[in-house]
Amino acid sequence: MSKDTIGTVMITEQQINDRAAEIARQIEEDFNGEPIVLVGILRGAVLWMADIMKNTNLEMTIDFMAVSSYGSGKKSSGIVKINKDLDTDIEGKNVIIVEDIVDSGTTLNYLKGYFESREAKIVKICTLLDKPSGRRVDIDVDYIGFTVDDRFIIGYGLDYDQKYRNLPYISFLED
Length: 175
Ligand code: IMP
Ligand code: MG
Prior knowledge:
The protein is of the alpha/beta class.
């Protein structure tokens, strides 16, 4: 069992906050005064969800889902399992899924289909990070905080073996 080595700071808290404010303006424009439901995907999205929530000036309700597509390692299993379902009826609602990172796209592709089957009016995706190098499923991501290269990212909600979610910045694990 070797010790993890945390890399340098890739994205600061200030940069994330500034980007959240920009995306919030975009969301306000896109939904033009209509109410929205933000659905945060536990647990990685918690900090980013809070940033988007407090910056978006629209009538809003929030909910959370927990899904797993990852085991405890760094590779996706490709299978999505719902560990906590919605408490909200989203039929006819404007839904924005808030995620920490889009890697293979498996999770969001599944969730988008799931929300559409529950007859949401609109389903959009807002992710803190996009890692296009990992993509295996083609998916439209509406709001992207930052694009990252092919590294294992930690911090600002993202974990490795459930650790490092509390880092107030985005970093990566050294190989
Ligand atoms: P996807 O289904 O492959 O797109 O994976 C999405 C989920 O895998 C994310 O919500 C994360 O929880 C996790 N994940 C993917 N890449 C990373 C990473 O670099 N660091 C931490 N978690 C990751
Ligand atoms: Mg996640």
